[in-house]
Amino acid sequence: MLEQRLAMENGESTDVVVRKSVLTPKAIIYQKFGNDACYKVEEVQESNQNECPGLAIIQRGPCLYRCSLQLPEISVRSGTFKKKKEAEQAASELALQKLGIDPLTYNIAEEDPWNTLVNRIKFSFSNEFLTTLHPLSGHLRAVLQREGDLYGRVPVSVIALIDPKVSNLSRSIDPKVELHPYMGISYVKKAVAGLSEIVDTSDEQLWVKRKDPYPLEIMDLDMQQSVSPGSCSVGAVYIPCSNEKTAYTVNLDVSSSGYYLDAVANQLGLMDASKVLMTRPIGRASSEVRVYFATSEIYVSELPSNHSNAKTDMHSEESYNTWASCLSGEAIYGDAILASIGYTWKYKELFHEDLTLQSYYRMLLNKVPSGVYKLSRGAILAAHLPSAYTTRTNWRGSFPREILCTFCRQHRLFEPVYSLVSISEAPSETSGSHKKLKLRDSAVEGTDHANGSIVAAGSKEAVESGGTFRCEVKIYSKFQDLIIECSPKESYKKQSDSYQNVSLKVLIWLDAYFMNFNTPLIKLNSSADELDIKFNPTNFFKAFALCRPIQSFLYGDTVEARGDESNAMPGQEIRGPVSGVSPSNGSLACISYSVMLVIKSTNTKELLEHNDEFEFEIGSSSVIHQIEAAIMLMTVGQSAILPMGVHSQELILAATDDSERVLSLLSAKDCCLEYTITLYQVTEPLEDRMEKALFSPPLSKQRVEYAVQHIRQTCATTLVDFGCGSGSLLDSLLNYQTSLEKIVGVDISHKSLIRAAKILHSKLNANEACAGIKSAILYDGSITEFDPRLCGFDIGTCLEVIEHMEEDQAWLFGDVVLSYFCPKILIVSTPNYEYNVILQRSNLSNQEEDPEDKTQSQACKFRNHDHKFEWTREQFQQWASDLATKHNYSVEFSGVGGSGEVEPGFASQIAVFRKGTTPPLADNDSPAVVADNHCSIVWEWDGSTRL
């Protein structure tokens, strides 16, 4: 019904188009040999061949796995792999090669799946199967403990849904079973009908029973091997179908001689276990977490071709269980129970584990990209899916590629398929990312498949030549329908960075959709284009049709819930003395935090979540925006109290350990959240630490002193800092006696400007050295767009900014600032790429080096992950000279850090533009400008109001 409604809304056909599944080598081996196939996986510890062969200490390499497969006819042994499952698949593939079976052309139909299904069910009631370690044999043994008429009766649904081989055979007969697993029940009923000499059955009661009793010796042996667990009470979650009711916990009371499905049936108000249906396992394949619900005729009869219409006829809209369907990925009607209980492959005893409301809401949270990240960090109320992957050393929690794989498994999709394209520099050109690149065609040169990836041939050569990598990813449904494809334009020097960045793009786009399922298709396409994503609307909406309830679950993380970040939160309070050590973009902040649920009227507080040591990267949006905004206003040692409203009850219940108490508190009208945060430590970006370690004073301070020198020489009274960031230059200038009367900063980072405003405001009001400053303004806007308020300044600065732009934007900035803003003097600094070889030889750099860097060439890396380019002296001088000639400026070159007389020159190269007296050359290519105030004022200070 729900699928049909969504399809109709999108103008799609409701017919299900199913493609035949392609079996893995291991699945083919299992179908042909079953339990006769014996896999043995061994660990292989390889020594690490390093550059010191005479080293006495053995260097341990990575742990690898090798698999031996024993079949009745042959035995094989695989190579070594990083994962056990890869070794098993490789061994299976070798066995198939020896048997002359091609996995790509293998047709299960040749095995006559119907006869195989009948034989499998027949074997399930044999004497030998009862004593095996198998989930289905556990049910068969359990029903032999039932009393009265129920003795020995196993539900048909158990045979159809618990035995993987029966499920696979049902899918072979009808691939639609993959979408609607309960269709397999009708095939089991048909198969059982042909086994009347072995079993009794009842169409009405949906049970099967072996006719002849098991031999006493089999029963005695089974009793000796089994240990009675005694009675148990298992915590479960009851999920009402009514959206007006919330889930609550129940207990399943299973007696020592009882059958646990009878306890489930009792909670659902059913006569016996034959009326109970269960979903496939939720989460891992080995999990026993399932959703249980009442059966109906639609699930057990032979379904017509128009399955969606049949559901509409059999069920009312009100009986559709949105939350249970969302959790299980299967359309469920009526009330349901979530429980972790069942029989496993390892033990004969009943496995069970208590579930709570926290468990339930965390399982729902795990179906969303941001939820997977929150859970990996153990910070449901504080963490947020980062907006950028910078470096491996700065990332905390599960990596984007791992999150995307988890997301696909949660939604029963194929693992993501990655394609790595290597881009190598032309051999005739020198090292440096600014050179032209050529593309290797992996389709021509061949590919290697491993770990769900397609690795381009020639990738090793790309690394050795200082080349880069671009990664693409595709996501398919279980029927091999393409759902999402992402082909980024960006390339990276590390293979791992390309994998992680393409994964993060897909995650960010999916996360935005899950937070607003009503996003118009036009807007969805637009956001996909921005992230280099293409998707098939029909396949996409079908894949996530059951997930709509999650939108309300995550309301607290939506843009609408965030509101205007420039507004201070009522009651926000920062305590403690100012230490002077503050975070900046790219730095790692270490905090402790706690989140309390507060009832204002009674002053009641309940702890929801706390973390004594929580690290995150500033500027990557890896925490909720309120926390990052507060941290940007703090220094090390300070604490902050942040009151917030309650946006998502479900998110809170996923965090708390005491759901019953918290639920009662949430009913209060005056409840709110209170975050208490303490900033313990700030680790500066590697670039800053390298510069501080090699230069005294640090390069940043040397650049400020260079600017101060020119201010004093020219007696400048007005200054504008293009790309002021958190105001470090403006802040430093206030420590010097200068002729400045007006200072202005411009930046596109609102958060950085807020921090700059706080710093400048306190210093301007307290520092006597700033007495000459009459006006200070901070603007939020792009420095490549014209604003008349930025024109005519005595001096302009742009220190270490242009390298964060694309190169064409750096040229545009030069045109705009020199042709329209026209400062008398413009000081521009940027890293000298040629100096990187010295910086990156430092011990500090080597200590922080990513292990993957060791496999790369000796070509220099950029100093900062956010740098789009870094220029040599020749390139920088060419850029500055062309702009100066074009706009009638003279230009001088200098720098700080090192010496201009000694190779490779200054660490930071500087160009000083001075305005000429003659009109600039006519240029028809100058950027078009609209005389409009495009910048918005974030903060303004008037010296006449100085305290």
From TrEMBL:
Cofactor(s) needed for function: Mg(2+)
EC top class named in words: transferase
Annotated catalysed reactions: small RNA 3'-end nucleotide + S-adenosyl-L-methionine = small RNA 3'-end 2'-O-methylnucleotide + S-adenosyl-L-homocysteine + H(+)
Alphabetically ordered keywords of this record: Magnesium, Metal-binding, Methyltransferase, RNA-binding, RNA-mediated gene silencing, S-adenosyl-L-methionine, Transferase
InterPro entries noted in UniProt: DSRM_2, Hen1, HEN1_dsRBD2, Hen1_Lam_C, La_HTH, Methyltransf_12, SAM-dependent_MTases_sf
Domain HTH La-type RNA-binding: 107-218
Coiled-coil ranges per UniProt: none
Superkingdom: Eukaryota
Enzyme Commission number: 2.1.1.386
GO biological process, one term: RNA methylation
GO cellular component: cytoplasm; nucleus
Family the entry assigns: Belongs to the methyltransferase superfamily. HEN1 family.
Record's protein name: Small RNA 2'-O-methyltransferase
Species: Cannabis sativa (Hemp)
